[in-house]
Amino acid sequence: MKLECSRKDLVDAIDFVVPVAAVRSPQPLFQSIRFEAAESGLHLLACDGEMWAGRTIQASVDEPGILCVQGRLLKELIASLPDGPVQLVAQPGSLEVRAGASDWRLMAFNAEDFPLIPLFSSSSEIKLTFKEICDAIDAVSYAVASENSRAILTGVLFSYDGNELTLVATDTHRLAVQKLKREGMGSNMKAVVPEKALRTLKLLPL
User: The whole model's pTM is what?
Assistant: First the structure.
């Protein structure tokens, strides 16, 4: 893999996907970002085993390729670089990052076992503004269970009946409910969304 891209585009893409990567995991791939360089550009993908985030940016690709690099370490490095073009070059077992007269090498992992986004079809959907969803999450997230003994309690219930969206969270000691009355949000739905996914959603640079 060998390519050149804008530092700003790369920073924006890393900031978008890295919140999904696991902070701690026995599997290094879940702490990594998957880089795939192709004719269409550079595609970044992160996954913690339960959720995924991906973004594609423009890049001048001389040699296509795929590899994985520790996400948060790369984020710190790219953020410290001056604005301008950045070159990414795959070396045996590492990724070389070149900017101006400087270069760095980071340990790279084989991307062969990195889990790709599964294909699925949606049965229902609703539409909210980013502020509306963040405000609703803030109103109930304090009551989400922190223990994993009952997985369903570590998420927030979203229920929409065509007229009212209701969010419910409970750890069996506390109960939080937030309602938003509005017709035409979308189709009826009922689903429990993991609190970590909602927390990560709020961090996305949207």
Answer: 0.80
- CA nearest 138: which of 94, 117, 96, 169? 169
**Residue 13 has which token pair?**
């893409």
Distances (CA, A) of 170 to 52, 159, 190: 25, 15, 16
- Gap between the Cα atoms of 145 and 152, Å rounded: 9
Query: pLDDT tens digits for 58-108?
Result: 999 999 999 999 999 999 999 999 899 999 999 889 999 999 888 999 999
DSSP letter for each residue of 66-104: EEEEEHHHHHHHHHTSPSSEEEEEEETTEEEEEETTEEE
Distance CA 86, CA 192 (A): 41
